[in-house]
Each structure stands twice: as C-alpha cells, then as structure tokens.
Amino acid sequence: MLRRLVFAALSLACVVIVLGAYVRLSDAGLGCPDWPGCYGQLSPHHAADAISAAHAEAPQGPVSMPKAWKEMVHRYLAASLGLLILAIAVLTWRRRREGAPLGLALALVGVVIFQGLLGKWTVTLLLKPAIVSGHLIGGMTTAALLAWLAFRLSGLRRIEVSPAQAWLARSAFVALVCQVMLGGWVSTNYAALACTDLPTCHGAWWPEADFRNAFHLVRELGMTATGDLLSNAALTAIHLSHRVGALVAGVLVSALSIALLRRTTTRGLGALVLAALVLQISLGVANVLLSLPLPLAVMHNAGALLLVLVMVRINHAVRPRAVPVLRGRCLNENALA
Fold first, then answer.
1. Which of 19, 138, 144, 176 is deepest in the core (most CB within 10 A)?
2. Domains of the chain by residue range
C-alpha cells in the first residue's frame, strides 16, 4: 500500500508540475486573485458573477472564466497531492520499526507545506519572480523526493561504480538543479524571448547585459529593486545565464551518459539520460526559433522534470566502490614488521 501511494503521488506530482507550467505560461496565474478559493468561493462556477464583473472591467486582464478554471483545477490537484503525501507520512510512521524511511517522508511533508505557502504567496503577492521561481523549485523538489522514496521502496539493485563516476553523477545533478533554477527565473521574468537568435544573441556572442538588476530577488514583476522598468539588457542577462547554464549542465550530463554507456550494467541508464538531454536541448532550441509556442514551452518544462527524475534514478542507482584503505594499511604495517 505504501509503495502504491508513493507511485500515485509521484504521478500526480508530475501532472501538477506540468499543469502549473501551463497555468503560468498561459497567463492564468491570477485567474483567481485570492487564495485558497476563487473570490471567496469553492469554484469558479460559484464565483461566476465576480469573475464576469472583473472580466468586463478589464477584458485583457488576468481574470476570465477559462483562466479561473485553469488556476482552480491546479489548486485542486495540488491539494490532493498534499493529502496523498500526508497519508504516506502516516503509513511510514506506522512502519518505522520495519525500516520505513520516516525521515524522507517527514521531509516531504515539510516541503509540501512550504510549497502550499508559496502557492498562496504567488497569488497574494502578485507573481513576484522570487516567489514564483521558488514555487517551481518546490514542485521539482517534491517530485525528486517522491522519486527517491519510490526507488528506495522498490528495492532496486544499486550498482557499484568508481568514485570518479559517482562524483560525476552528483556533480551533473547539481548542475542540472542550478539550470532548472535558471530556467524558472527565465520563465517567471518572461525572458524566454530576450534573445531570438541562435547561437548568438542580438547578433553578438556576448551582447549588452545588465546582471546587477537581472538577479535582484526582492522586486516586483517586470521592475527593478528601485521601481523602474526592467530593461532589455537585464532580460538579456537572464536569458544568457540560462544558455551558459545549459552549456555547463549539458557537458556534465553528456560526460555522465558516456561514462554510463561504457559499462554493461549502466548502459540503459546512460541511454535514458542521453535521450532526455537531447530532447530537452531540442525543445529549448525550438522554443527560441519558433517564438515560444505554448505547447513547446510546456513541453520544455516537462522535459526538465524528466531530466530531474532520470538523474535522481541514476544517483540512487550508483554508489562509489569501496576503496580497501584499511586492508592496504595493515599490509604495509605487516611488511614493515
């Protein structure tokens, strides 16, 4: 039952993350400008009058019946995920004497509570980039922890590799996490089309970029910390950082895939991560060249999630081979004796 609940929660978490990307990219994040209900009601159907009035006042604004339903369906599914994770924690607590990973389950509860608060602040603080990016990272963290728990409960065989290969797997995962964070910052600041050409940006390898204002966390959407409009140079800096991060993460993940492909026992994992990487790079390039069509933009978020889950699987599967240091020391001492 515990294993089934974990896999159900992982599946639902993936749906919630992808749907959240769709809500954000379709500008429906403020479809219901309060929280947790919609204009104080349980559903957009019950708040139809208020939504119609807001839409009539600002037809091009963030509130409409379709946007409200997108936002509320996302909230319903996120709440269901929270209940599933709470049930997992309860079952894990009951099985703690049997070796169930209680610490991991409790960490999940903590993450999902904080994630709920970030979801609230995303709406009530009007889509501040730092809050929205944190909400995205919280979703990815939830999925990664659920995946690790699922792999652990499944009793999958772990594979011994050299310490260097284990270090490469950890380093590639850290680089991927940083890249996902940069991607979230690009998305929440609407900087995906700050550079519309490839491989250059504005026809230059390194165009004018304002990094100081680009990564200031305490500010409103589209504004600098002093309240001025965020410049194109700042948006360019955000986009460029994501490209550089993609290069670093791509090199490390590619090196990891090559190392895994060379071993018979890890060849399947190497092929899987290489395929996920190629897919994600292709989606990123297509988004720039095709001016960010909504389906491709959502798929790019889903591709990032796929890469994270594959990297979690790899880091769960491999472990560094023990080095017989003590045995060698004893042999040396015997020789000296």
1. 176
2. 1-156, 158-337
Tell me the three state secondary structure of residue 123. Answer: helix
Which H or E run includes 161? strand 159-161
The rounded distance, in Å, linking the Cα atoms of 48 and 71 is: 14
Spatial distance between the Cα atoms of 273 and 252, rounded to a whole number of angstroms: 11
Instruction: Please count the other Cβ atoms lying within 10 Å of the Cβ belonging to residue 32.
Output: 28
> What's the whole-number mean pLDDT along residues 244-255?
98
| Chain center to CA of 122 | 16
Sign of CA dihedral 36, 38, 40, 46: negative
- pTM greater than the 0.85 cutoff: yes
Nearest in space to 123 (alpha carbons), one of 221, 43, 228: 221
Phi and psi dihedrals of 265, rounded to 5?
-70, -20
Condensed to tens digits (0 to 9), the pLDDT of residues 148-186 reads 999 999 988 889 999 999 999 999 999 999 999 999 999
Catalytic residue among 57, 71, 208, 333: 71
Tokens, residue 263: 């071993």
Type and span of the H or E element at 318: strand 318-320
- Give the helix/strand (H/E) hosting 159: strand 159-161
The pLDDT of residue 337 is above 50 = no
Q: Tell me the pLDDT tens digit for each residue of 116-150.
A: 999 999 999 988 999 999 999 999 999 999 999 99
Give burial (CB, 10 Å; 0-12/13-18/19+) of 308: buried
- Residue 71 known to be catalytic: yes
Between the alpha carbon of residue 220 and those of residues 47, 123, 224, the distances in Å are 28, 13, 7
CA distance 151 to 17: 20
